[in-house]
Amino acid sequence: MSEDLEAILSLIERHNEWRGRECINLIASENVTSPLVNAVYLSDAMHRYAEGLPFKRFYQGTRYIDELEVRASKLFASLFEAGYADLRPISGTIANATVFTAFGKAGEAAAVLPLSGGAHVSHSEYGILGRLGLKPVQMPIIRDELIPDVDEAVSLIRKASPKLVVLGASVIIFPHPVKEIAEASEEVGAKLIFDAAHVLGLIAGGVYPNPLKEGAHLITTSTHKTFPGPQGGAILTNSEEIYRKVSRLVFPVFVSNHHLHRLAALGVAALELREYGRDYAGQIVRNARRLAEALCERGFKVLGEGKGFTRTHQVLLDVRGDGGGDRCARKLEEANIIVNKNILPWDDPSEIRNLSGIRIGVQEVTRLGMKEGDMDEVAEFIYQVVKLGKDAEEVRRRVMEFRKGFTRVHYAFEASSERIGKLTKLLLS
Questions:
Q1: Distance (Å, rounded) from C-alpha 55 to C-alpha 85?
Q2: Beta pairing, strands 340-342 & 314-318
Q3: Alpha-carbon gap, residue 101 to 108, rounded angstroms
Q4: pTM of the model
Q5: How many whole angstroms separate alpha carbon 235 and alpha carbon 392?
Q6: What is the pLDDT of residues 44-88, one digit of tens each?
Q7: Structural domains of the chain, ranges and CATH numbers in brackets
């Protein structure tokens, strides 16, 4: 075996062991997939092409992929009570790019949240919205809650007459007021888009309001955060006209081949949420609330205290008094606790080294079986590292021991090793 091959294999083996069995992962945009999702993801379809729509391809050899895509799309749409789903975007950003292109033109306004108010970079002047020439106008927010101020947002929409209104966010602790903003969007003829990348699994589990039922014209999303599927994107709508318009843009504009091995994995993940999603999503929110309470009890400044800290998977800490987001995130990583520094409403987006916040998500640890009592343990680890300055090596050993109790994926189908072996045998032989 060559030195390079040995290095590659060793690095991925070490990564799998470290992140998969030794760390407490609290990154809000990640999750773990189930053994059955993994088995169908690792398939011959990863080598194949299927440009276009099912049964209308530019390639032959797609007879099973066509049926699979139709079935997975119907399952996905049904889970969110949507009329139509396009699963071909290969990321949430590609889904956003598609709908921004479909319903906006260069020079037109788009009402968005500020980056410091939780918006994803693709909604901003720095991302695809700005690159397409759309002009972002920022809706004012309630700073401690990171939600739009309804009265001021409605006033801005009526004044600016944007073609797009974008809700949903990367930093989101309370539901956005879709219903309240939808009426103003209709008045000016704007398409209301909800980026559900972070809360998609919570919507499926019924603990976060379904934006399509509250007046959003479209949902754009990724499929690997609270929704525990493979990495990728999707677009949902109840309008056939909207679906046809965005569908004609996904291919050939933004996607050629849409990574076909995602389809079966996405279908299985949707079925898992249909079966277990309510219990899973409910536990996520309970865990997030308890973690926030436990951190507050230990002296951390947790945003949203006046409304109970959080109603999603996320907990936000203001750590300006603890050295800032970058310093805290680095110290926690040394102790095998993985979080990310994050911008908060009073930060300057251009000063990324001096961000005030830490963003925490509990969806992955919840799927590994953690409950409210375990959140007290996690809060104590964070407290010892950040507040007490305990030796990282000492805390890391305790984290690794704690993590040994959480290695199985919950809220998932119990697939037999025989069936998983059959699914992967041909590819690995």
A1: 16
A2: unpaired
A3: 11
A4: 0.96
A5: 43
A6: 999 999 999 999 999 999 999 999 999 999 999 999 999 999 999
A7: 37-270 (3.40.640.10)
